[in-house]
Amino acid sequence: MLLTVSIGNTRIEIGALTGGDILFAEYLNTEMKATTFEYASKIRSVLAFHGCEDTPVEGAILSSVVPPLTQVLKNAVERAFGVTPMVVGPGLKNGLRIRIDDPKQLGANMAVTAVGALTSYKPPLIIIDMGSATTITALAADGSFLGGSIMPGLQLSLNALVAGTSQLPRIDASSPRQAIGRNTVDSMKSGVIYGEAARFDGLIERFEQEMGTSARVIATGVSAREIIPHCRHKIGFDPNLRILGLADIYRRNS
């Protein structure tokens, strides 16, 4: 069994595959003060929950956008399963042709998501990844990584709106009844949900204009299901891009 670990600012995705088939994907809260032992225990609990506690972990791979936790999670996997995980970064082949100004600036999770998309979909592609930050990336017809856009994620935007004002209440990011809100809560939901959808529609149009072609659009991430239905562009949803990308990078470097 191959274990995948993707460390994000808010959540850590734990995945497992055998023979290319995904067994499960689960999430842990990102906790900066958690110890190696605590993370090792949580990861073993995830495997046990899915009935995989007795399945040997033959390999592991990790990506991270939280540098202080990279070594902690690497040590946790080693302690829990006796294998040293690969860490996505310089020195690992990912198969991407990166056409940004400085390839070293490409974030690990953006690279992994792009690799995952290319395992399942034919480029040109536009990939929307909704996490603490939302990223939109463009892959050319030949699969080259062209670059993208980075912006506050849905929950981060909502938290900032509430924290930065005196009278706006804390709300859940559920779908509004209509664009023209008739009370404060509905108006906030309209601004957050329809505003996010409109931002995606606008950036997709700009991306395709600069790419010189239409592109298939795939979304992933925690808030994607909530936003996609309100977009005017056709956007597919794939929750497994990161697991597939990590598995592909692992195979390339095994």
Entry summary:
With 254 residues, the chain is α/β, with parallel strands linked by helices.
Number of helices: 7
- How far apart the termini lie comes to 14 Å
The CATH class name of the largest domain reads Alpha Beta
- The average pLDDT is 94
Q: How many structural domains in the coordinates?
A: 2
Gross morphology is globular
Uncertain segments are: none
Named at the architecture level, the CATH assignment of the largest domain is 2-Layer Sandwich
Describe this structure in words.
With 254 residues, the chain is an alpha/beta fold. It has two domains: 86 residues, ATPase, nucleotide binding domain (Nucleotidyltransferase, domain 5), CATH 3.30.420.40; 143 residues, Nucleotidyltransferase, domain 5 (2-Layer Sandwich), CATH 3.30.420.40. It contains seven helices and ten strands. Strands 3-2-1-4-5 form a five-stranded mixed sheet, with helices on both faces. A five-stranded mixed sheet has the order 8-7-6-9-10, sandwiched between helices. The two termini are 14 Å apart. 35% of the residues are buried.
Topology:
Elements (H helix, E strand, L loop, with lengths): L1 E6 L3 E8 L2 E9 L6 H14 L9 E6 L2 H15 L4 E2 L20 H13 L4 E6 L2 E7 L5 E8 L1 H10 L20 H28 L4 E6 L2 H4 L8 E2 L3 H13 L1
Parallel strand pairs: 1-4, 4-5, 6-9, 9-10
Antiparallel strand pairs: 1-2, 2-3, 6-7, 7-8
Which tags fit this structure?
Nucleotidyltransferase, domain 5; 38% helix; alpha/beta; five-stranded mixed sheet
